[in-house]
Design a protein that fits this description.
Elements lengths: L1 E10 L2 E11 L5 E4 L6 H6 L9 E6 L2 E2 L6 H4 L2 E4 L7 H5 L3 H10 L10 H13 L15 H13 L5 E5 L7 H13 L3 E5 L12 E6 L2 E7 H4 L2 H8 L3 E6 L2 E6 L4
Parallel strand pairs: 3-8, 3-9, 6-7, 7-8
Antiparallel strand pairs: 1-2, 1-4, 4-5, 9-10, 11-12
Helix pairs in contact: 4-5, 4-6, 6-7
The structure holds adenosine-5'-triphosphate.
The site of adenosine-5'-triphosphate (ATP) has 11 residues, from α1.
Pfam families: ABC_tran (PF00005)
Membrane topology: Peripheral membrane protein
Main location: membrane
């Protein structure tokens, strides 16, 4: 589905990504972990052509970046990242329901008539993702977690083949975080989930990519990659990763 072949990204003489070779297959859900500045966002923003690789090839859904029509590829990818925040001023004065309708229409506002079918689809998503109480609220009146959730559902309504989430739970309290994770547990699309918090690894995650200094440190099946040893070496800190009821948590041993 997605393939990076020898991808590097160099800016201002600094190597930000080096020789990335990675294959992501349809049906897999990936967790991406790595220290600050390890290149996680840069790597996946290339799929949306927000950043262009210096060397290497990027293939997605049978097309190659730079050779084929990439807008058709982007249409199949949903992305939730801080870059979405630039649309907040437009979203602020729209209701949750209007934002979801704009998702179906793939526009930031609503510029043409809403069909009965579109209306029904939006109502289905509102019901499925428990947004009934919020549907008439203005985006500006929502909490940050509620806004994130609405944007995720807006993305899901477009039925992307893959949804890239770049730290969707950053700065959310436990309750709002669980609300987001619950939305993702229900989502019927492949996920690429970038985070700093291993506790956000929902059970449907199948594969893990660990990035360090712009290089692949480890990557593969969750059961082979997500362990104390690898995370210790990734972050250079003595820690213990434990798993309970299919969820992970970290204990830092260096604390006194
Ligand atoms: N266009 C650019 N020009 C120069 N430097 C860049 C550019 N894009 C990213 N960088 C740098 O590349 C490095 C990797 O950034 P990136 O945001 O991809 O890392 P990250 O792993 O997602 O970090 P974080 O976890 O802190 O969000 C950072 O040092 C960043 O400042």
């Amino acid at each position: 589905m997605i393939e990076f072949c020898g991808v590097s990204f160099i800016r201002d003489g600094k190597t930000i990504l080096k020789d990335i070779n990675l294959k992501i297959k349809s049906g897999e859900n990936w967790l991406v972990l790595g220290p600050n500045g390890s290149g996680k966002s840069t790597l996946f923003s290339m799929l949306m052509a927000y950043r262009i690789s210096t060397t290497g090839r990027i293939m997605c859904f049978g097309r190659e970046f730079g050779k084929d029509n990439w807008s058709q590829v982007k249409d199949k990818i949903g992305i939730i990242s801080s870059t979405m925040e630039k649309f907040n001023p437009t979203f602020f004065n729209m209701t949750v329901k209007e934002i979801l309708i704009s998702g179906i229409k793939k526009t930031i506002g609503i510029y043409d008539e809403v069909t009965k079918e579109e209306e029904e689809t939006v109502e289905e998503y509102i019901k499925e993702y428990n947004l009934s109480k919020l549907k008439s609220e203005y985006f500006k009146n929502l909490s940050s977690g509620e806004r994130k959730k609405v944007l995720i559902v807006r993305s899901l309504i477009q039925k992307p083949e893959v949804l890239i989430l770049d730290e969707p739970c950053a700065s959310l309290d436990i309750c709002e975080r669980e609300n987001i994770l619950d939305t993702l547990r229900k989502a019927k699309t492949d996920l690429i989930y970038i985070t700093h918090d291993v506790e956000e690894t929902i059970p449907k995650i199948t594969n893990v990519l660990l990035l360090k200094d712009g290089k692949i440190f480890k990557c593969g099946k969750k059961s082979e990659v997500l362990n104390s040893e690898n995370l210790k070496n990734l972050y250079g800190i003595d820690l213990n990763l434990t798993k309970k009821n299919n969820y992970y948590s970290i204990e830092v041993n260096a604390r006194r």
